[in-house]
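We emphasize that the prediction below concerns an isolated chain of 122 residues; any contacts that depend on oligomerization or on bound cofactors are therefore not represented. The input was used exactly as deposited, without trimming of termini.
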Amino acid sequence: GSVVASYPYDDSPTHKPTGVYSKSADDEVFKYLAKAYASHHPIMRTGKPNCPGEEGETFPDGITNGAQWYDVEGGMQDYNYVWANCFEITLELSCCKYPPTSELPKEWENNRESLLAFIEKV
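Result of the prediction step, given as a token string:
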């Protein structure tokens, strides 16, 4: 896990594991939506999730193009965009995939304003 808003495309023509910006026709819209979420999240907006084992990983403005981060061939986000014209972003909300129940109220507080801002934009 991480703390970042990722947007299409997750797959790239070269299928290099990382570092290839794979721009969609609606790239600016996706960046706008991803920033709307990230800019209201206290950790995401810093661009420095500081996840264990990935302390040096950074995301400018708390967002990333999926394939730039890591290439995912055949992902749902790209499939829905290409075949159903559904604009999706992927939200990585925690360094831990399954946070303990005791941390859920904190996660809600971290994400509440982001969710509201995102819904307003959508």
